[in-house]
Amino acid sequence: MANYNLSGVYDLFLYPFLNKVRQITAQKILLYKPKSLIDICCGTGNQLKQLTNKDIGLTGIDNSPHMLKNANELNCYLQDATDIKFPKGSFDMAIIQLALHEKTNDVQQKIVSEIYRIVKKDGYIIVVDYEMGKHTRKSAKYIIYAIEYIAGKEHYKNFKQYLRNGGINELFKTPDFRLVEKDNIAGNAMAITIFQKQRD
Fold first, then answer.
1. pTM for the full model?
2. How many other C-beta atoms can be found within 10 angstroms of the C-beta atom of residue 108?
């Protein structure tokens, strides 16, 4: 999550939009029964809160101290997603939710490389982000474009470039990851995509 000074109103503003997405993501995570999980760009920690008391070792990282103030009861750390301070193969599962689209392509590639490094062989990666096409509901598209525009000029520029580049499908299009499943949600404007790490 970007280092906004809007963290105090972030959850209030986006909670209705994101809560259903977080619930669906939590259900997916539990199906794969990870023993350890890292939430990359965890923001205020609301996705991790959906997973407490589920016998999963939970960790979160974010580069915004403002966001992490609202995740202080969780096992969250101030870290940059391009340089994660955990050893190779530390986690059974990594999730990254609505964060890649706001980065430049160079930063996206670095984050994907770090995700690959810290996940165990045969471990899983869950990516939740925008995916739009001809089947996307127009109302959902308008709302998302409005939110991204409000987020700021650089953010909006990266968001549009992310969609032009092919989004998650292109970022994870390597032999290092195997597509396991994909579910389109939010009026076919977003997707929950699950990959499995293929080699060490």
1. 0.91
2. 24
